[in-house]
Automatic annotation (TrEMBL):
This is Ester cyclase. GO terms for biological process: polyketide metabolic process. It holds the Pfam family SnoaL. PANTHER family: ESTER CYCLASE (PTHR38436:SF1), POLYKETIDE CYCLASE SNOAL-LIKE DOMAIN (PTHR38436). It comes from Phytohabitans houttuyneae.
Length: 173
């Protein structure tokens, strides 16, 4: 069994958190796909560094001080698994999208911080990320950020934020 270098995987996560997105082309293969992009904007669902950069912009639009603290990295052939803690402070509205790419949910910022464990799975080709998927603690994040259980006032803010995001999306289409 051939062992591969996991540096591209960790680098892709650090680059996405830092915002230096021009560096993604160095570590993300032109045919790379993010299997987690189904709830993200349509431009995140493409292939290659541009789609990964779109995911980074989407995350960074809602979270300041975004960071991935790497705990463990394991490799098996062309597969790399990264166990980490993602942390940040919500400063913008977090938007989730439906299968058509339309805004499905909007979670306005309450200014809170979160730190959740995640496991990211990467497949590499030619030393670059070619596939990504993850296991995340979305309920833990929602609890830490005050999204659940929602208060009546927060539910109203969610409705207003979703309407606003949908209007903005319609104007830019």
């Amino acid at each position: 069994m051939r062992t591969i270098d996991s540096d591209a995987c960790v680098a892709s996560m650090k680059i996405m958190a830092s915002g230096d997105l021009g560096e993604l082309a160095r570590v993300v293969h032109p045919e790379a796909v993010n299997r987690e992009a189904k709830d993200e904007p349509l431009d995140c669902r493409g292939r290659g560094p541009a789609a990964f950069a779109a995911t980074a912009r989407w995350l960074r639009s809602a979270f300041a001080d975004l960071d991935f603290d790497i705990h463990d990295v394991a490799t098996d052939g062309d597969l790399v698994v990264v166990h980490c803690t993602m942390s940040g402070r919500q400063t913008g509205t977090f938007l989730a999208y439906d299968e058509r790419g339309e805004v499905a949910q909007a979670f306005p910022s309450r200014g809170r911080t979160m730190a959740i464990t995640q496991t990211h799975w990467f497949r590499l080709r030619d030393g670059q990320v070619v596939e990504h998927w993850a296991n995340r603690d979305d309920l833990g994040m929602a609890s830490q950020l005050g999204w659940v259980p929602p208060t009546p006032g927060y539910l109203w803010r969610m409705v207003r934020a979703r309407r606003s995001a949908r209007r903005q999306q319609a104007r830019s289409s």
